[in-house]
Amino acid sequence: MIRGMGFNQIAILGVGLMGGSIGLACRADANHLKIAGYGHRLEDLKLAMDRGAIGRATGDPAAAVADADLVILCTPVGLFRNLMATIAPALKPGAIVTDVGSTKRSGTELAKELLPPHVQFVGSHPMVGGEKHGIANARADLLTGALCIVTPVESTDPAAVVAIEGFWQQLKMRTTRMSPEVHDQLTADISHLPHAVAAALVRIQSPESLRVAARGFLDATRIAGGDSALWRDIFLDNRDNLKAGVVRLQAELQQLLARLEAGDADAVQEWLGAASKVRSAMKSETRSTKSE
């Protein structure tokens, strides 16, 4: 079992970038761990097996969770309702279900509605990813050193929360707790809105401008290359918080526009300098955290 946490069998539902990376990290830590993987593409399941991310593959999610102590939902959030309804009858008493979704309110409510009372649901969000998706891009160190947000609610069994935090920590992640509501507010600002901005920056370019794009543009828009169906689900699921972020961004850009129209060099520099100061502090904090 994973040391001290009582997980002998794990089911990973969705063996893409995240699910595959979790499987590889688990195998690196405990090679004997039994891991079943579910997916709807046979070629992905075969590759996950070949790479050692899972030990058993199935196209039936209920079969994947049979006898699993821990079930990890790694599909897009738009599939959670059907997935939870399908696996609910097959979950054994005492099993813990978690997920890696980028939104937490809807998943928590679905778990309350659909999962049986003998199962605990603890939401998780590993703050990692990339524009390249799929099992081919999974790697065992993707999670290393990153933050995982755990989102229990008042009714969540504290022992299940500790077990889930211990699971992510054993995969070399840092963990923090917050409510699903706070999570969705914060990630709208630091994840979902930046993705929308990156996509908008790409959309406004002409073919001529794209031909001369250099490192700065590529860095600023890297995340726009992500899975559009996955991000569609995230945007719609968290649309209230994303809409609020878009409104604040519009107001901020209006401030810049006013400074530009006035030709006020000092005001433009002040606008840029305030952002530079915050961003530099973030880089220093990140370096300090990783060195600890």
Describe the structure.
The chain is elongated and about 65 Å long. 53% of the residues lie in helices and 12% in strands. A six-stranded parallel β-sheet has the order 3-2-1-4-5-6. The protein has helices at 17-29, 42-51, 61-65, 80-87, 105-114, 158-170, 180-203, 207-211, 215-220, 228-237, 239-262, 265-291, and strands spanning 9-13, 34-38, 56-58, 70-73, 96-99, 120-121, 123-126, 147-151, 174-177. It has two domains: 9-178, Rossmann fold; 183-291, 6-phosphogluconate dehydrogenase C-terminal like domain (6-phosphogluconate dehydrogenase C-terminal fold, Orthogonal Bundle). It starts with 8 loop residues before the first strand and ends with a helix. It is an alpha/beta fold and 292 residues long. Strand 5 (96-99), helix 5 and strand 6 form a beta-alpha-beta unit. The chain contains twelve helices and nine strands.
Class derived from helix and strand content: alpha/beta
H/E element sequence? EHEHEHEHEHEEEHEHHHHHH
Q: Tell me the count of domains.
A: 2
**Total count of strands:** 9
N→C terminal distance: 28 Å
Largest sheet entry:
6 strands, parallel
Summarize the structure.
It is built from 12 helices and 9 strands. With 292 residues, the chain is an alpha/beta fold.
